[in-house]
Amino acid sequence: MDKVLLGKTLRPVRCRFLSLRLLLISVIMLGLADGLAPRSHVTSAAATTAALPVDNLPVWRCDPLSDNPLCAGRVNDIQMFSAQEGWAAGEQGILLHYLDGSWERVKAPGVNALSSLLTLRFSDPDHGWLSGLTYDNTGALQGLLLRYDSGAWSLFPAPPNLGFREIVTLSANDAWAVSSGGRIFHYAIPAGGSLAEWQNVPSPTGYPLNGLAMRSSTEGWAVGNFGAILHYSQVSGEIGPTWKEVASGTQTLLTKVAYDPRDPRRVWAIGEKGIILKTDGAGWQQVYSSTITRLEDIAFTPYDGWAVGEGGVILRYQGGTWDLASYSPVTEHLFGLSTIQTGEVWTTGDRATLLSYPGGQSASWEILSHTLGLIYTGLSAAMPLSGAAPLRIWAAGLRQEGLKSSAYLLQGGDIPWRVVATLPDYVSLAIGAVGVSDLYALGAQVDQQGISHIQAIHISPTGWEQSEPGLQGVPRALVVYLTAGSMEGWGFGDGGLLLHLQQRIWTSAPSPTDHSIEAVAMADERHGYAVGAVGTILQYRKPSQGTGFWQRDFSASEENLHGVAVLPVPETGSFEGWAVGDNGLIQHLSQVHPEDDPIWEIFPSPTSERLLDVKMPNRDEAWAVGGRGTVLHYSRQSNSWQMVPSGTEYNLTSVAGFSSAFLWAGSTSGVMLRAEGVLPLHTFLPLLGTGR
Predict the structure, then answer these.
(1) Cβ contacts of residue 140 below 8 Å, gap of 6+?
(2) Best-predicted range by mean pLDDT among 38-47, 193-202, 211-220?
(3) Do residues 605 and 654 touch, judged by C-beta distance below 8 A?
């Protein structure tokens, strides 16, 4: 068997029978991106804390792997004024201000989680522009333009249906921009005048323009698709400077153009396939490039030049040639680049990537922020069986990496998040924590014929084990708990897959359904529930003497169910719980009459978004998460579910914790949220396992 070490992968992917293998991986990963993540549900430990008042809910904030305000997503552009101050902007409305050593998110009018911020440019720290795209109230895409003046952002009239692709500022009152359709815009305030509008300037091309560089108000360059290069200059016989198209010698898409500060005649352009062009005033010529990947941005210091692009490529210009930098710490696509006079360099990219280079011949690139970009498939809260600190959260996630999918195990909570293990070729991973240092997991690896084989993992204080039970299928849910001094567990998955753990051995068990099961929770060692497709609910019963079994239970709906949570009601010997699913469905498990069995009933829901997980920190409250950043809170005091702002538009797939003061939620886009509760942590009494 191939071995996996903690945090390391020892085996390269093999690509025989690639089409069948990729088809299976693609189907599973597409389901995850749509919110149908493989899931792992077990009950949280019961808490002795009181319910949180509805009007005193915690605030949800980003909690990524590093202390990173970006949370996740692409950062498109960056401008640094000095080593102490700068700005960055990107997708999902990311707008950041760097000041005295820390990045902080900034709110700006008209910018939200659906906004795509494409470019920003400042003439000085007090004056600048920000442009992008967003959606209006009717759902139509429109241009977004903001002006920064003396410490505040304000909306500015934008040309219709346009987002500037690059802005260049010559002063606070003089700026240029390029956009799609070959359009060029100029903003200028005459001396003593008031605010002006952006004026459309005649352009000689209809090709989209992507890059712009201006030396002065009378000279500049623009580049775009199909090798388009435009020059702005004074032409003999014409009144004033005009834009003229010049020959580039290529049809390759060009992304950026820049002046070389060390030679006033030299201008550089970059683009697709690693192309690099230069002119010294007598026509453009192509020069050698040490990469064939797309280059996205180019910038110069007084000492060297830099270009960044696809796959984390970083080129450095020294001694007359462009060579790959000796080391790039990431493989994410890099988009933005900024330099300052002292020689320091910053670049930004996908998955919240932010890198810095301190300048100097022997310096190296440093990662300032970066997220794994995982689709989180499950969270599981864990604590020592003694009930004392520490409290931890285990997380499982999948990441598509080129032609394969890999799984990751992480741990965080009261410590910074860290990667515990990397699992190659996994297309699903469900987890169940038994303790801070004790975790069980079930996953599926796809072989060269496209067949998924179940893998079992156990991390314990004494070591790490990975085994293959000899079973096929795709696990989606897992619960592991203590019973009679030993460990017992149940695993569920696609097509009614049912596995049983006894004496650390997983075996196939008879299943009462052929529907896929996505979530499972145990009220105690003799009672549990599992839920899945078309409203399927399974009930586990184990007599005081004999073997336990799963059977179909009544469901009040045929909507797909994705999450379940149950807790015992000691005073009645019954159970209470929640199940959530598609279209905001919420079902409540309760005992109507003391002599009756508990039944499932539909409960009023404040949302129509798909709900993907639910947890009960205690009997007086519950939390549910789902599509488009949905977070719901239930309070017994009001006997209702209420929407809670989450600060993200990403699909939230899982939630786990011990109370509203210790609660995390994972998403499909690498974002991990934490609830900053207002109640102090209390002593928690573990029930069975310890969470999801």
Answers:
(1) none
(2) 211-220
(3) no
Whether residue 409 contacts residue 372, with contact meaning beta carbons closer than 8 Å, is answered with no
Angstrom distance (rounded) from CA 607 to CA 632: 9
Q: Is the pLDDT of residue 91 over 80?
A: yes
Q: What is the CA radius of gyration of the chain?
A: 28
Do the beta carbons of residue 577 and residue 521 sit within 8 Å? yes
pLDDT at res. 372: 77
The CB-based long-range contact list for 444-449 (8 Å cut-off, 24+ gap) reads 444/473, 444/474, 444/475, 444/493, 446/21, 446/24, 446/25, 447/21, 448/14, 448/16, 448/17, 448/21, 449/17, 449/20, 449/21
* Greatest CA separation for the chain: 103
Query: Which phi and psi (to 5°) does residue 79 adopt?
Result: -140, 125
Rounded to an integer, what distance in angstroms lies between the CA atom of residue 402 and that of residue 409?
20
Pairing of the two strands 242-246 and 662-667: unpaired
pTM of the full structure: 0.70
Long-range CB contacts for residues 593-596, cutoff 8 Å, separation at least 24? none
- As a whole number, mean pLDDT of residues 71-77 equals 81
For 21-43, what is each residue's pLDDT tens digit?
444 444 444 354 444 443 333 33
What residues form DSSP beta bridges with 569? 574
**Residue 65 pLDDT exceeds 70:** no
Angle at CA of residue 171, ends 169 and 172, nearest 5°: 100
Place of tokens 């430990």: 45
* Tokens encoding 542: 């184990």
- 3-state SS of 333-401 is CEEEEEECCCCCEEEEECCCCEEEECCCCCCCCEEEECCCCCEEEEEEEECCCCCCCCCEEEEEEEEEE
Q: What is the mean pLDDT of the chain?
A: 85
Among the residue ranges 4-8, 72-76, 157-161, 189-193, the one predicted with the least confidence is 4-8
